[in-house]
Amino acid sequence: MAELLWPHWPKLESRMKKRGVMLFLDYDGTLTPIVRHPSLARLSPPRRKFLEMLTQVDDIKTAIISGRSLAELKQLIRVKGILYVGNHGLEFEDPQLHFIHPKAQTAQALLKQVAQKLTQALEDFPEVWVEDKTLTLSIHYRKLNESKAIFVRKIFSNILQPYLRISKLALTEGKKVWEVRPPTPWNKGRMVLWLLARFQAHLPKKVFPIYAGDDRTDEDAFRALKGKGITLKVAEHRSESTEASYYVRSPSEVFLFLRKLKALKEKEREVLLHGSS
Ligand SMILES: [Mg+2]
Q1: 159 & 198 share domain
Q2: Which of the pair, 238 or 125, is modelled with greater confidence?
Q3: Ligand 1 center to 249 CA (angstroms)
């Protein structure tokens, strides 16, 4: 069970000392509060400004890893120097490389067909929204009431089952959203480990990973980073079951944590350059 982060800060601060930090941040529900419609999840200007400043800190590398498409994520955040990871790790981009998972590449045409079928079959339910993110589909049902949800589940399952049965596609669930994805065990966790190794390869000192997220897909990353760094779940209460080691209660507390981290690394750099007074 995750513990509230703040009482542990002094201990964590010393663990991070003199280590390069690689920061993995989920977007929805982590950097922005959960809102009625995903299109309303905007990063506030002060928070964008802060992320910009964070990219200027020498010992911190920041990645944003989301279920949204890479293109949308970049457009929402618009901060240079951040490593963007979209579609739960199926695509990422930094100045050197644009990566798309090969299984995701090949599943694209089928996903498009399924998106069309679902959109058509669910057209009587305006509360449900089928979002085609090219490499995955998100079926959002946040506004659907329970009595209608039974019908929608049935329609959804009738269309999906034939593909799931022969492992042509896979299904995961998030907060009021179904995700239809290519049939690969690749997830946020595997992507995080891969990026960590990639980043580590350029650095002499051992990199300390930090991951913050609020949803089920983030649990793969919490699991992958067990015993390696700080895993931070954004959740209102302690009781929520999670693989993360710590929790904070809101996106505001995520930013508070990030500000403390930035101050810590800036202070270290200051001491290194000018010595302690
Ligand atoms: Mg999230």
Answers
A1: no
A2: 125
A3: 13
- Residues with a catalytic annotation lie at 26
106 with 59, same domain: the answer is: no
What's the domain range around 127? 102-181
SS3 annotation, the chain: CCEECHHHHHHHHHHHCCCEEEEEECCECCCECCCCCHHHCCCCHHHHHHHHHHHCCCCEEEEEECCCCHHHHHHHHCCCCCEEEEHHHCEEECCCCEEECHHHHHHHHHHHHHHHHHHHHCCCCCCCEEEECCCCEEEECCCCCHHHHHHHHHHHHHHHHHHHHCCCCEEEEECCEEEEECCCCCCHHHHHHHHHHHHHCCCCCCEEEEEEECCHHHHHHHHHCCCCCEEEEECCCCCCCCCCCEEECCHHHHHHHHHHHHHHHHHHHHHHHHCCC
Task: Using the mean position of ligand 1's atoms as its centre, give its distance from the Cα of residue 20 in Å.
Answer: 25
CATH number where 55 lies: 3.40.50.1000
Domain of 149, CATH number, reads 3.30.70.1020
Considering its fold, how many domains does the chain have in total?
Answer: 2
pLDDT tens digits along 67-110: 999 999 999 999 999 999 999 999 999 888 899 999 999 999 99
Ligand 1 center to 65 CA (angstroms) = 9
